[in-house]
Amino acid sequence: MALGIRKICTFLEETHIEGGKDAPRPLNIIVVAAVIKNPWAGKGFIENLRPAIIEITGPLSEEMTRRLLAQMPAEQIEACGKAAAVGVNGEIEHASAMIHTLRFGNPFRHAIGGTNYLEFANTRNAPGALLSLPMMHKSESGKRSHFLTANFQIADAPHPDEIVIAIAAADGGRPHARIADRFQDIAEMEAEAANSDGPN
Description:
- The chain is an alpha+beta fold.
- The protein has one domain (5-196): CATH 3.30.1330.110.
- The chain is built from four helices and seven strands; from the N terminus they run ββαβααββββα.
- The chain has helices at residues 50-71, 92-99, 102-112, 182-196; strands at 5-18, 21-37, 79-86, 119-124, 131-137, 148-152, 162-170.
- Strands 1, 2, 3, 4, 5, 6 and 7 form a seven-stranded mixed β-sheet that branches.
- The termini are far apart.
């Protein structure tokens, strides 16, 4: 393929019990990961990464998004995120270049009706390493119930001269979420600060 894709892997996770208690409804997480040839591998230090970013990231995101939505319809998606892992011969900047561009993020975000930035991870790993992909609510940044992490691994990737690029989506938050949203903390701390300013 023109994008240098060696393989695409799809991971499905369905959680029914958490903390020994039945979930109100199963939590479904989908990860779509593409293993591509690192376009900068073996070329030494390259100052301008833009040409490969422009050529690869948009079409790759569109293909991965299409595959993810085939598993989970956009209207069911509540949380999302992205990740990239470069092989040991590459720079972490190479992984970052593939996902930290609107050309990659926008096709996925727009397709699922998201308004937040995509939570992310970028790292360097050997083949078979456990990869962690963080997620957050697609439109409510302070909604802690949807701070999730999808873990996955591909036995033979990334090769030293490859990059694993992944997107993920979940159809809900943690099954028994019971910590306050960020906005409640802010309100409580503001109230505490106001009370502490008064006479003792």
